[in-house]
Amino acid sequence: MSITRHDSGPLLSLAVEHGDTVYLAGIVAKNLKNDIKGQTEEVVAEIDRLLAKAGSNKSKILQATIWVNDIRHRAAMNEVWTKWVDPKNLPGRACIEAKLADPNALVEIMVTAAR
Amino acid sequence: MSITRHDSGPLLSLAVEHGDTVYLAGIVAKNLKNDIKGQTEEVVAEIDRLLAKAGSNKSKILQATIWVNDIRHRAAMNEVWTKWVDPKNLPGRACIEAKLADPNALVEIMVTAAR
Amino acid sequence: MSITRHDSGPLLSLAVEHGDTVYLAGIVAKNLKNDIKGQTEEVVAEIDRLLAKAGSNKSKILQATIWVNDIRHRAAMNEVWTKWVDPKNLPGRACIEAKLADPNALVEIMVTAAR
Fold it and tell me: Could you tell me if A62 lies within 8 Å of chain B, comparing CB atoms?
């Protein structure tokens, strides 16, 4: 199966196609002054962009890992998540707390999707 | 390849089939008054149930991520894990510490399996 | 699709082939007296060894999860990562902080690759 990589920087590719599956990097917001809701909105918009580039979309997400830097932010993150996901095509998901690379990054989401 | 989702709630699906692969959500116990061993037993029983629903079983697990809310619980979790897994068909695995959504949840396990 | 497991111990297999995909365990260094750079070098060498055993190599890595036990070690880990990865074939990646099984383990890396 062929591998196609998108948006490759010095450390990683933001999306990697492998056959019928696409693996995204952990996505964080760029505007780190926003609160958890604003950051989550930016993250899911970027996931939409990357999935489209890789021939997929949010209705095809298979599994998501969500790291929040404070587990008490989970409810606010979930508000944005619930508005964003396709309610008829919900992925598997884990949401746990972890310190992220930038102390001002409040949420990071990494998904695997079908193409 | 077709996608089939099982046990979908408001936030996520507990299991998602994609071709020959099945992606589970991170599973936590419902009875959070149990100790780490009791919670792990409930988690692996639920994984058994979900894998069966998706046409798989524990002998086909490919990769597992295990979060414990206190890394000192790893040994007790491993006792249950070792009794549960198919010793001839062990998956790849990572076990790390993380705060989980509910402070009384002591362990969360997310697996990917073959069908 | 067939499943082939490599280097299976009491708890896990270090590598699992499933069709065109290979799932590795979270890899930590054995020499835990080394600093973050030394430990990362040992981890990526072990990943190279396991990928080769499973018919893959670092140019085919699809997604990597990197746990560091202190997020301030990320820059030093990245120095080793950048020298190691194939710059024309970079994987998706997330790097977060987590306590690992051994308090002296500074980094753990789990990858999924194409075969």
Answer: yes
Q: What percent of chain A is modeled with pLDDT above 90?
A: 99
How far apart (Å, rounded) are the C-alpha atoms in residues B14 and B27?
8
Partners of residue C62 in chain A, C-beta under 8 Å: 3, 16, 18, 23
* pTM score above 0.90: yes
Give ipTM to 2 decimals. 0.97
Fold classified for A3-114: 60s Ribosomal Protein L30; Chain: A; (3.30.1330)
Of C78, C89, C97, the CB nearest to A11: C78
With vertex at residue C4, the alpha carbon angle to CA C81 and CA B6, rounded to the nearest 5 degrees, is 90
Nearest CA in chain C to B99: C98
Q: Which residue has the tokens 């990858």?
A: C111
Q: How many residues does chain C have?
A: 115
> CA B29 to CA B108: how far, in whole Å?
8
What are the C-alpha distances in Å from A20 to residues A70, A107, C3, C21, C79?
Answer: 34, 27, 19, 12, 32
Alpha carbons within 13 A on the beta-carbon side of A77:
28
Q: Mind telling me how many Å the CA of A95 is from chain B's nearest CA?
A: 7
Q: Is the separation of the CB atoms in A106 and A35 below 8 Å?
A: yes
Domain range summary for chain C, segments of one domain joined by +: 3-114
Q: What is the mean pLDDT of residues A10-20?
A: 98
Look at B8 and A74 and tell me if their CB atoms are within 8 Å: no
Closest CA–CA distance from residue C71 to any residue of chain A (Å): 6
Q: Does the beta-carbon distance from B26 to A95 stay under 8 Å? A: yes
